[in-house]
Amino acid sequence: MKSLRFLPVLLLGLAGCQDALDSVANKVEHPLPAKLVNKMKANDMSTRSPIMMRIFKEEGVLEVWKQKGNGRYDIIASYEICKWSGKLGPKFKEGDRQAPEGYYRIYPSQMNPNSSYYLSFNMGYPNSYDRSHNRTGSNLMVHGACSSAGCYSMTDEQVLEIYGFARDAFKGGQEYFLVEALPFRMTPENMARHRDNEHFEFWKMLKTGYDHFELTKRPPKVEVCERRYVFNQVTEQPDAKFRASQACPPAQVPQSLALAYNSYQQDWNEAFTAAVAKFDRDEARELAAAREQAEREAARAEREARRAAEIAANGGQPPANPVVSLFSAANPLSALRPDADVPAPAPATAQEAADQPGSEQTTQAAAGVPVPTPNPRAAQPQAATAADGSTDKPFWKIWSRN
User: Cβ(190)–Cβ(184) under 8 Å?
Assistant: First the structure.
């Protein structure tokens, strides 16, 4: 009954969400909420400034970043991903239901205002990196409806805002925006935790772009050559081209970024080494605990098997346990009872007697040493005599006539 009291309120809340979407006559042009517009103004952002998006599978988060007046980016909104399919790691082929990982450019042509999943945009999978590795797939989206088969699915309310961010950025003149799709935040602890994963080397490559963004707060310039991602490369020849399956043209990272990255990487490597050592210790303790548990389980199973064998040998009946009396001869504690017969010690030989305490006189006599003779009077009890000759009597006999 208590739950039923809140049912009208719950239904009203759901109806409110539905009414909000039903009232959106033109979802493609629906303006961003006033709270987001005010937040952008407070952070020196315009509604049409460029954007970037970051996706973290393990954390289940899609972030929207916008450019500020100084050219650097700051996070403006974060959304909990409703559903994503597959597991950590890149997409390989059509039908594997894997959500992709990598760096994807989103152009205006990839926006889908007529999506069957409310609103959506195509991630552009496979990109040039994926194609260089012969990976296949199609129609990998960020969309609404909270349903995924290889996509990153949001709620309709969320995708309405996400779509609005992209729409306004394109209206502001942004050629494309970057989606950085990663398995997790690439901290030393997370990388150490996943160091044995089959995709670790792939993730190390993605991490370079992640690190460049962490340092500069600007989307990295992403290219593909020699079948790998490269970031923020400046070519020696302005007309040089990056081709996914060909050798990289002569290029290098700007010196200021290279110096900052080297310093950042040194600190990161130290933290990574410490995290690996910690995880190794924890894994060793867990392994030892698991081994002890397995040994206990094996001992218990052995006892149960032995018990089952005894029952089977006894015709299916549990073997009777003999009852031992506390004072029976079979009980080793029976010798401690008060009325127990204590056996007399066996006669000692002459040598054993000489070794026993109290045999000092015998030993001295045997060695020819004179032994004092005890005073025979000392063994007779005598009444104590006082200095005046009177006999010391007990106090109750002092006044006795006798």
Answer: yes
| Active-site residue, 199 included | no
pLDDT per residue as tens digits for the range 317-376: 777 666 555 555 555 555 555 555 555 555 555 555 445 555 545 445 444 555 555 655
- Whole-angstrom Cα distance, residue 130 to residue 300? 53
d(CA 376, CA 378): 5
Answer for the pair 177, 169: CB distance below 8 angstroms, yes or no: yes
The angle formed by the CA atoms of residues 71, 72 and 78, to the nearest 5 degrees, is: 130
**Phi/psi at 329 (5° precision):** -65, -25
Cβ partners under 8 Å of residue 30, min gap 6: 24, 160, 164
**Residue 143 among the catalytic residues:** yes
Q: Cα angle vertex 309, ends 308, 311, to 5°?
A: 65
Tokens 């490269």: give the residue. 230
Q: Could you give the angle at which helices 255-313 and 200-216 cross, rounded to 10 degrees?
A: 140
CATH, range 23-185 = 2.40.440.10
Which residues are within 8 A (CB) of 104 and not within 5 positions of it... i.e. 6 or more apart? 123, 124, 125, 127, 178, 179, 181
Catalytic option among 82, 143, 212, 225: 143
- Active-site residue (options: 30, 82, 146, 151): 151
Handedness of CA 141, 53, 45, 43 (dihedral sign): positive
* Domain assignments of the chain as residue spans, ordered by start: 23-185, 186-220+254-296
- The Cα–Cα gap between 221 and 219 comes to 7
